[in-house]
Amino acid sequence: xxxxxxxxxxxxxxxxxxxxxxxxxxxxxxxxxxxxxxxxxxxxxxxxxxxxxxxxxxxxxxxxxxxxxxxxxxxxxxxxxxxxxxxxxxxxxxxxxxxxxxxxxxxxxxxxxxxxxxxxxxxxxxxxxxxxxxxxxxxxxxxxxxxxxxxxxxxxxxxxxxxxxxxxxxxxxxxxxxxxxxxxxxxxxxxxxxxxxxxxxxxxxxxxxxxxxxxxxxxxxxxxxxxxxxxxxxxxxxxxxxxxxxxxxxxxxxxxxxxxxxxxxxxxxxxxxxxxxxxxxxxxxxxxxxxxxxxxxxxxxxxxxxxxxxxxxxxxxxxxxxxxxxxxxxxxxxxxxxxxxxxxxxxxxxxxxxxxxxxxxxxxxxxxxxxxxxxxxxxxxxxxxxxxxxxxxxxxxxxxxxxxxxxxxxxxxxxxxxxxxxxxxxxxxxxxxxxxxxxxxxxxxxxxxxxxxxxxxxxxxxxxxxxxxxxxxxxxxxxxxxxxxxxxxxxxxxxxxxxxxxxxxxx
Length: 507
Known about the structure:
By secondary structure, this protein is mainly α. Helix content is 73%, strand content 1%.
């Protein structure tokens, strides 16, 4: 494992990898700085670009978009009280107040430095623990993998936004879609409805762009996305952040980093909850909690360190077990699969140096992130004023081009439109599509491991699982209890977020 790490460090030190990560960071910050344009939408639309690049360039490019997008959302949140992404909602509590006090520059720089620190620290923790976790994952057989995948799907459905039953329903839809085409054991066609193109299964890329990007575009059009921020924005107003001001918030940044790191490992919770938990913890620990919400630099540091610290740990379940932790890592797993890399226990064995190279690139991306972010803050502050009516048509073009180009099959455009309409409909009905997409991706692996388990059981499944495979039995028995605990905790956290959002967002 150590040899793989050293080789990975050497592989990551490439100028083209660094250059594409820089491009990804710039694009991510650009999209993040646009209110209403989410990081998920950006990654879904830019995903096809990674297919034309080798893995050590294409995947770090997407990771750059990921990191840049999460931070970029803080810019409009601070300047005009309009979070660019959901992860930056908590930043609106103190950011606009600081801008009104003439401290917009300090707030933007605090967001940048705390984001970079939280992200960098969590990435280092990810590298330290992914090796031991991968070694444990290698001991997992088909029955254990089946139980883990089933547990993951149930937990994701339970912790997704919205009602638990809706999450389960979307999971079932995803499992059905994953069964379209040839089954992984007998190679028999099923549920193709005599459509030749479905014999190879539902195409992943048009599906991802359809359910994640098109609904956002349609909703923006529905809301008459012609508005423009007309106020004068000066991102350099006031003096720069001083070292003393950063040091006074350092304990808060470390606390939020730990909170975000822990939340990042748990599927389905994500940056929004991490930001609110970091903010609440900072406010509770402060000697002057009454200053929070009225223009407190510590509030910016707490929220931004927490939401960016989620980024690295989400890669742990993705790379070691093939289980994406949120909607962004769902898109990343699509990139891995398209590159011929199937995340899971064997990936660290077969492609260990490449995996470590990607993780080291994540660490290096934070250094680029800090440099690029510092010098481009004034540029991206101007992005806030761009009309959506100009950008939306271009986004639609990229969505259709990205779906068509990889296979040059017009059928993919029909799939794109179909899933776009479906995604828009379920979004209006308050369904979360993430359980569906995760079930679609993990469904074949779940089915294949279940088939292997049936063969190993030799017709006596219950005895084999509960008496011969104690770890599998423990996972199966513990699934309802763990699901209930995580569902209850997730619901409580989301309710607290909703309560704080209604009480503390400035009018």
